Amino acid sequence: MSGCFRSNRKLTMAVSACVIIAVMALTVGLCVGLGSSDEVREDQPRFTIDHEANSFMLDGEPFRYVSGSFHYFRAVPEAWRSRLRTMRASGLNALDTYVEWSLHNPHEDEYNWEGIADVVKFLEIAQEEDFYIILRPGPYICAERDNGGLPHWLFKKYPSIKMRTNDPDYIAEVGKWYAQLMPRLQHLLVGNGGKIIMVQVENEYGDYACDHDYLNWLRDETEKYVSGKALLFTVDIPNEKMSCGKIDNVFATTDFGIDRINEIDEIWKMLRVQQPTGPLVNSEFYPGWLTHWQEQNQRRDGQVVADALKTILSYNASVNLYMFFGGTNFGFTAGANYDLDGGIGYAADITSYDYDAVMDEAGGVTSKYDKVKAVIGEFLELPEITLNPAKRIAYGKVEVTPALALLSAEGRAALSKGDPVESVKPKTFEELDQYSGLVLYETELPTMDLDPALLKVDQIHDRAHVFVDQELVGTLSREARIYSLPLSKGWGNTLQLLVENQGRINFYISNDTKGIFGDVSLQLHNGGYLPLENWRSTAFPLDQASVELWRRERSVQKDLDSFLARQRILRNGPLVYTGTFTVGEVGDTYLNMAGWGKGVAYVNGFNLGRYWPVAGPQVTLYVPNELLKVGENSVVILEYQRANKTTNGADLPAVQFDAVAQLDGQCGDVTLK
Fold it and tell me: Which residue windows are transmembrane per the record (predicted)?
C-alpha cells in the first residue's frame, strides 16, 4: 500500500514474492513459481527461492535485490527514462511500481493505455535501463492515490459494494480488470524472457481485514496469468494482524521504516512466524513520509536513513525503498486519510509526492541520495552512469487576467458537464459519474421562520462554499467538522452549495463517495428542522480538455464584469484567471501560488493539481520541463476563495515561476515581487 497512512505507520509498497509449492524432499517444500521448470526455456533466467540458504536464486545463483519505488503515473512519460537512469546510477538493481486500476479504467468498459497510462512502455524502458521489476497490480494499491487506485464508478454501479472482500460484485470487476491488464504484461515476466521477477497479491491486507476466501481467489486469479513465470508475494505491516494477510503458497514479506529499525530482530521474528524460510524482505523501507494539507511537511534525516538501510542489508535481506522517487499527484489524483483511532478525522494529501524521498520531486539527486548510494555501493556493484539533470529555471512573475466566473451562465456553459440533473435529494459525484472537481447543488429556500435560521447538512464530502443568490455566506468543511451555518432573512431565494472533492480516502477503503449525504435542513421556529428537497446538481469535472478548450475559444466570451474582476475575496464564486509567459530556454520550474487561496492550476492545458497555500505546507506546484515549449506558454488558474494582489493594488493579480520548490511552509499573505 504504497505510502499509505496509518496512525504512525509506514507507506506501503510491497516488493517481494513467491508462489509456494512442493519442490524437493530436502527443502521446506516452497518454491517461487507455480509452474514447473521445464515450462521455462533453459536459456532464460529463472527466479526461485533456496529455502535452505534463505536466499533468492536468479539463473541458479544467489540473488539479493535493492529496489526503489517509482510510480509511472507520478511523472510525465517523457521523464520516465531520466528518472529510471538516476535510480539505476545509485546502484539499485530492481524497480518497484504499482499499477493503478482507476487510471487505466476511468469509466466502466473504458480503458486507457496511452501517455501516462502506457504501463507497458514504462516497464520496457525499465528493462532497457537494466532493472529487474517488482510489479504490484493491487488491485488496491493505497499509494496516497484517490480511492487507493480503485475506480470511482464501482460505487455507482454497485452502491453497496464491499471493496477488497469476497463480494461477488467486487471480484467480478477485478476479474474483468485483470483480463485487460495481465495479458499485456505476460511477455515481461522473467519466465517469459522479461524482467518481472515478482508480482504482489493485494496490499497490506492483514491490517485491513481477514477474508482468506478473497485472498485465495485473488491468488488464483493472479496466478492464472503469471503461470509460474514469476514469484507471487504479499506485504504486511509487522503486527499481530500479519496472519490475516498471509496467503497459502504465496511468499510473505513485511515493511517498516526508520522509526522501527531498533525493533528489527523482533520484526524478522514476526515475519518468520508467517514465512519460516527463504530470504528476509522489507518491501517498503521509508526514507521519507507522506504529508497532508494543514500539517508540517514530513522530513527524515538522510544519515539516519542511510544507517538504517545498512542495518537492513547487514541481515542479507532484500529491500525496497518507498519512495526512491516520489513525483507528483498531478490533476485530482491525490487521496486522503481518515484515522478514527488517531483522531485526525479526514485529512487530504498534498499534491506533491516529493515524500522527502531519495530523489526530489523533479527527479534530482539530493544529499540523501548520495548517502544511500554510498551504502548500496558497499553491497552491490555501482554502475558507471553519467547523469544530465534538467535545468531549473525561474521565469518570474506572470500577471493573470480574471476571465470567467464559474457560476455565471457563461461559466456553466463552458465548464459544466451538461445540464443540471434534477432530483429530490442531491446527486453524489459517483451518481453523476464524476471522478473529481466540483458539483453545484441548488434549491429554492422556503419562507424562513427565524432570522437567522441555522442551515444544517448531515454530511458533506468534502468542502462546500455556501451561496445565496450567488453571494457567499460561508464554508462547510469535513476536515474541520463544520456542517452548519446561519442564514438570515432577506438574503435571497436560491441556496447554492458548491462542493469540492478533496480526494477519496486511500487507506482503510470504506466507500468514500463524494457530495452531500443525508438531509440539508433549515431550522424552524419550533426547534425542528425542515429538510430541503428538489435539487439541481451541476457537475464541473474541470478536466484539462474542457479547460483548455475554453481557453482557446475564450475570444468569443464577453469581458468579465469589472466588479467581479476587482474582487480579492471571491464572494460571488470561483473565478478563472488566464495568463501567458514566454520561455526562451526550457527547464523545470515551480508555479508559486503564494498569496492565493485554494484551487487548481493548468499550464499549457495540463492539470498540475490542487493548490492551497493559505493552508500549507505546499506553496509551489511542480511544472515539468516536458510541458513547456520555447515561445509563448499558457497558465490557467481556477481560484475558489481569494486572488493574490501585487504591491500596487491597481495591478492584475499574479503568479510566479520559481527555480526552487516551497514545500515546507504556510505562505499566507505573501506579496510577489
Answer: 12-35
